[in-house]
Amino acid sequence: MHLQRRAYGEGAVTIRFSLVLATVGRTNELERFLSSLDSQSNREFELVVVDQNKDQRLAPILEPYQKKLSILHCVSRSGLSRARNVGLEHATGSVVSFPDDDCWYPPDLLERVALFFCDHPEMAGLSGRLADRPRQVGESCAEDQKNIGAPRFDRRAGLLDKANVWRRTCSVTLFLKSSVVGEVGEFDESLGLGAGTLWAGGEDIDYPLRALKAGFRIYYSPDLVVFHPTSPGHDPSELADRGYRYGAGIGRVWRKNSYPVWLVVYHLSRPVGGALLNLVRGRLPEARYHLAAFRGRLRGWRSR
Fold first, then answer.
1. E strands within the chain?
2. Which residue, of 152, 215, 247, 265, has the greatest Cβ tally within 10 A?
3. Is the pLDDT assigned to residue 229 strictly greater than 50?
């Protein structure tokens, strides 16, 4: 199954997108995303901006685009999952997605997603991968996939399942039919950044896992790319805490979704291997990070 690049022609079922974007603290990055939306070949979308800033910094950024794009600007309390739930209350499209405020779209992204759903009405969702830049002239697909996500994202296309979901989706690259969202409901507000809990991550995997449990089919294509910058460097002294909190969120998702022990053991072994490898190489902060991620995952999995 390949994503089509033909024109989104007349007679096709109209696909209208609701893009639910939670944002806090960023301005230049949001302007870049808005610019990428203004360049989309498919204009059938609404952008729901869920603002968690305590000031009016977004007003001058949104104002010129509100004349060209369908934008709803609303506010929410802190927390990524809370913000997305607020946005879902206002989403009216037939397909829903959850872009980050620092990502951006290639010009034909929404057109290709719309074509996929028109050609494959049996599919409830579509997911792609992240890359930190567009493909360069003369660059092969294999070279392109060495961008951000090469260790994370699968190079093979296919359906999502419980075992491969960690390598085949994230909230930024996930497009779901509104019928799926209606069935799955809200994001778990105890998970994710700003939740005020130990579980600092995992909300973007918990959601598609719940969709799979409900019987929906979600397809993954590595040819579908959303651009996202590489993660910025972190103070080595903060790495371990970050690894622990994100790991705890991952482990919590395992527990919530009844992961089998063999699969949990497999995922627990990965940060252990990373810790040992970095220890041998003399990279102590990175070794501590992986060890903390192991401890966090174990803590989350053992939670009740």
1. 17-23, 45-51, 70-75, 95-97, 125-131, 158-159, 174-177, 218-227
2. 247
3. yes
